[in-house]
């Protein structure tokens, strides 16, 4: 999961199972930012992806392009995980 998504989720109110994914993930530095390698069931990742929807922007609040891109990348990874995973 991209670092911008992980930072957003840390500030959100999550269920204990959802909180465990970003809390126990391993950060991997990538250039200016980082990627968080989080192990969780695909259903948890889909729920976290749904909670990240505000990163795409809301009415009256413009989206930050880097946050939109991070959410899209996470969405692509979750989609690939669910189509090729168990």
Question: What would your notes on this structure say?
Answer:
The protein is 55% helix and 12% strand. With 86 residues, it is mainly α. The protein has one domain. A two-stranded antiparallel sheet has the order 1-2. Helix 3 runs antiparallel to helix 4. The longest helix is centred in the last third of the chain and has 20 residues, at 65-84. The chain is globular. The mean pLDDT is 86.
Question: Quick gist of this model?
Answer:
The chain is 55% helix and 12% strand. The protein has 86 residues and is mostly helical.
Instruction: Please report the distance between the alpha carbons of the first and last residues.
Output: 19 Å
The overall number of domains is 1
Task: Provide a count of the helices.
Answer: 4
Helix percentage range = 40-55%
Residue ranges: pLDDT <50 for 5 or more in a row? none
Average predicted confidence as pLDDT: 86
Largest sheet: 2 strands, antiparallel
Please tell me how large the radius of gyration is: 13 Å
Number of strands: 2
Coarse structural class = mainly alpha
Shape: globular
Beta-strand fraction estimate:
5-15%
Order of helices and strands: HHEEHH
Give me the side-by-side strand order of the main sheet: 1-2
């Amino acid at each position: 999961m991209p670092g911008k998504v992980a930072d957003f989720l840390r500030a959100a109110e999550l269920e204990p199972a959802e909180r465990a994914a970003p809390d126990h993930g391993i950060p991997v530095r990538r250039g200016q930012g980082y990627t968080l390698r989080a192990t969780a069931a695909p259903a948890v990742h889909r729920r976290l992806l749904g909670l990240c929807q505000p990163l795409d922007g809301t009415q009256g609040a413009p989206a930050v392009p880097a946050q939109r891109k991070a959410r899209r990348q996470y969405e692509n990874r979750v989609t690939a995980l669910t189509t090729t995973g168990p």
